[in-house]
């Protein structure tokens, strides 16, 4: 599973490094097959949401064996809390003009769905040719009923999870696996 000196904080391993890698390869193949160039011949633009998605994005773009461009958004975070505050604010917007582009929005995890709903509205207002959504993890009980998530890595129960980009107070993002967080509070 890989050594990391925080064993006391790591609960159950939900997905191993190998399981994640295999799933990302599958997702990349599906995305490459389904999302192509736009009417002007430009490749899709994959948009990662900082910071949690960076690990997944780095693996996913390499699993997409077709031309692709990359951009990032940063949104307000939950800080050190382990619950969604519901408030979303854009801290860093896109560098690209996405009008007429095929855009793939990539998240590490969808919890309440509020961030994704907000970002879809923000991106659709810029009139992309298409917008697809992708998340490594979707937590059961997403509260946004009309939310479409086109590409899902794994669905998980409501436990708080760490690793593969997911943090608690900025730690654990570099775990190679995804595990539940064992709070000592
Ligand atoms: C996480 C995740 C999503 C959001 C999902 O980000 O990356 O952006 O929360 O939650 P929601 O579905 O309830 O809106 P976080 O605020 O933890 O920031 P980070 O990506 O920097 O870790």
CATH class: Alpha Beta
Cofactors, ions, other ligands:
1-O-pyrophosphono-5-O-phosphono-alpha-D-ribofuranose
Structural class: alpha/beta
Strand order of the largest sheet: 4-3-2-5-6-7
Strand content: 25-35%
Instruction: Round the Cα radius of gyration to an integer and report it.
Output: 16 Å
The helical percent reads 10-25%
CATH architectural name = 3-Layer(aba) Sandwich
Count of extended strands: 9
Low-confidence stretches: none
* Molecular shape: globular
Would you list the SSEs in sequence order as H and E? Answer: EHEHEEEHEEEE
In whole angstroms, the N-to-C terminal distance is 26 Å
Mean pLDDT score:
90
The domain count comes to: 1
Reported by name, the CATH topology is Rossmann fold
Instruction: Count the DSSP helices.
Output: 3
Largest sheet: 6 strands, mixed
Structure in words:
This protein has 185 residues and is of the alpha/beta class. It has one domain: 3-Layer(aba) Sandwich (Rossmann fold). 21% of the residues lie in helices and 29% in strands. It has 3 helices and 9 strands, in the order βαβαβββαββββ. The chain has helices spanning 17-34, 54-63, 114-124; strands at 10-15, 45-50, 69-75, 90-92, 102-110, 130-139, 151-156, 161-162, 178-181. Helix 1 packs across helix 2 (54-63). The radius of gyration is 16 Å and the shape is globular. It starts with 9 loop residues before the first strand and ends with a strand. 1-O-pyrophosphono-5-O-phosphono-alpha-D-ribofuranose (PRP) is lined by residues 49-52, 77-78, 84, 107-116, 167. 1-O-pyrophosphono-5-O-phosphono-alpha-D-ribofuranose binds at residues 49-52, 77-78, 84, 107-116, 167.
